[in-house]
Amino acid sequence: MSALAFRKMHGLGNDFVILDGRDRPLGLDTGRIVRIADRHRGVGCDQLIVLDLSPNADVFMRIFNPDGSEAGACGNAARCVAALVARERGFGDLVIETIAGLLPARVQPDGVASVEMGVPRLDWHQIPLSEERDTLHLGIEAGPLADPVGVGMGNPHAVFFVPDVAAIDIAGLGPQLERHPLFPDRANIGVAQVLAPDALRLRVWERGAGLTLACGSGACAALVAAVRRGLVAESAELHLDGGRLTVSWPGDGRPVRMTGPYAHSFEGRIDPALFAGMPE
């Protein structure tokens, strides 16, 4: 395997290694993804992103967690990829394809991008859940967390509302809730606090990645959950550990729109020695 060129980008500290597979196969497998994502022995990232050609959009974006599992959605990565492709093409409007669907995006010259994250999936079998439940009240709990809302944003989310996010041990409770039997594909676990009718505080334990500084699809899920519960207006500012996103959802049957910053960190090449001892 030859050296792999990569870009390192982030959205609110949610960081990505981005590889371009549009002109040649990259030869990646689960083991190689895990090594690249390792923060001590590899490059390190919350998700590894692979760009590919798409017959339906400007680019196809594949999303891999640090454990090698594939995710269907990542809003912060979508903004970063939109910025890359817009710079290549010389225009700000484009469409990104993922395994979860098509995401129209608009990149602004001020370092901000907006992405339509798709219509939220609100039926139990769409999220998916392992059995029929009212998705407004999933009926599971762990410690002080109880009564979450279920939302599918291309990946499954359970959103818990609490009086004070800072009082919750998300790192301790997240792993057990991620793997609750109700979630056959595991789930992202969001813990949200209503700050105002147009503001939410949010932290997210991401399946396969753990606690991150920001989760774009988690922000979308939290806004949808809060709107469904009547806690906030259809547009709100989401306060995450890494910064703020604006998310809006006009209601059933309409897509969620997320707006926020993107940033380039650095570029480099991955030495093939990183994969020493692995099958070719």
Question: How is this structure best described in words?
Answer:
The chain is of the alpha+beta class. The protein folds into 2 domains: 4-117 and 263-275, Diaminopimelate Epimerase, Chain A, domain 1; 141-254, Roll (Diaminopimelate Epimerase, Chain A, domain 1). It contains 4 helices and 19 strands. The strands form 2 sheets. The protein has a 17-stranded mixed sheet that branches. The protein has a two-stranded antiparallel ribbon with strand order 9-10. A hairpin with a 2-residue loop joins strand 6 (93-98) and strand 7 (101-107).
Return the CATH architecture of the largest domain. Answer: Roll
Helical content class: 10-25%
Strand element count: 19
Radius of gyration (Å): 18 Å
What's the CATH first level of the largest domain? Alpha Beta
Category by helix and strand content: alpha+beta
Our measurement of the CA-to-CA distance between the termini, rounded to an integer number of angstroms, reads 7 Å
Q: Helical segment tally? A: 4
Element-level helix/strand string: EEHEEEHEEEEEEEHEEEHEEEE
Domain tally: 2
Proportion of beta-strand residues: 35-45%
User: What name goes with the CATH superfamily of the largest domain?
Assistant: Diaminopimelate Epimerase, Chain A, domain 1
Query: Which stretches are poorly predicted, pLDDT < 50 over at least 5 residues?
Result: none
**Overall geometric form:** globular
Average pLDDT works out at 96
In CATH, the topology of the largest domain is named Diaminopimelate Epimerase, Chain A, domain 1
- Describe the sheet with the most strands: 17 strands, mixed
